[in-house]
Write a structure and sequence with these properties.
Protein name: Response regulator transcription factor
GO cellular component, one term: cytosol
Strand content: 15-25%
InterPro entries: CheY-like_superfamily (IPR011006), OmpR/PhoB-type_DNA-bd (IPR001867), Sig_transdc_resp-reg_C-effctor (IPR016032), Sig_transdc_resp-reg_receiver (IPR001789), WalR-like (IPR039420), WH-like_DNA-bd_sf (IPR036388)
GO biological process, one term: regulation of DNA-templated transcription
Number of helices: 8
Number of domains: 2
GO molecular function, one term: phosphorelay response regulator activity
Number of strands: 12
Strand order of the largest sheet: 2-1-3-4-5
Radius of gyration: 18 Å
CATH architecture of the largest domain: 3-Layer(aba) Sandwich
Helix content: 40-55%
Length: about 230
């Protein structure tokens, strides 16, 4: 079985060693980059399945690295930050990170988060013998055989958590959900910052809506939550 490849971007050698040790013990293949420039170079050379990215880095900070990675790949990214402020976490998610942990953190928790992301983003084999089936809202189409999403015929790319949320909406067209319901039903989070849902909705709209400022597919139901589907 192929081992998952994880790129750890951390400038503290001791912290990097601890994280790498736990990931290796969990069966993952690990490469370490000590700054932002090395992270971008290492990403190209190592082709990781997951990136664990410290936000405060020398030469090129983690915010810039995250933005650069997201321009070229939908690889899952866990952002590690020592700041811990809500605005900082939200900013990281807006840049395209899939998850975040704040220092100090449990290495075991980090491994569990990494494993969860890798499970969700593992590729599913296509089944060409089945007739293609689709779900469609306006010009947004989900092919149920290949799981490819297209808009006006053009393939779209999503991060793991974006895709989790979009798949859930495709499975529940026309239904309205509160933020806390989405957190629990999509990711089984019983507690957490519900403002994260707003970030993922905003990121989805930037990809699936013709005009994200005036959505016609993913609607805000004021005072309630969100509804996916054609306008009613």
């Amino acid at each position: 079985m192929r081992r998952h490849r994880v790129l750890v971007v951390e400038d503290d050698p001791m912290m990097a060693e601890v994280i790498a040790s736990y990931l290796n013990h969990a069966g993952m293949l690990v490469a370490v980059a000590a700054d932002g420039v090395m992270a971008l170079d290492g990403f190209q050379a190592f082709n990781p399945d997951l990136v664990i990215l410290d936000r405060m880095l020398p030469r090129l900070d983690g915010t810039h690295v995250c933005r650069k990675l997201r321009e070229q790949s939908s690889v899952p990214i866990i952002l590690v930050t020592a700041l811990g402020e809500q605005d900082d976490r939200i900013h990281g998610l807006e840049l395209g990170a899939d998850d975040y942990v704040t220092k100090p953190f449990s290495p075991r928790e980090l491994v569990l988060r990494a494993q969860a992301l890798l499970r969700r983003t593992a590729g599913q084999p296509a089944q060409p013998q089945q007739a293609p089936q689709t779900r469609q809202v306006e010009d947004l189409v989900l092919d149920l055989t290949t799981r490819q999403v297209t808009k006006a015929g053009k393939p779209l790319r999503f991060t793991g958590r974006e895709r989790d949320l979009l798949d859930f909406f495709f499975d529940h067209p026309g239904e309205t959900f509160r933020k806390d319901e989405l957190m629990q039903r999509v990711w089984q989070w019983k507690v957490g910052d519900s403002s994260m849902i707003s970030v993922y909705v905003r990121r989805l709209r930037e990809k699936i809506e013709t005009d994200p400022a005036n959505p016609t597919i993913l609607h805000t139901i004021w005072g309630v939550g969100y509804r996916f589907g054609p306008a009613v």
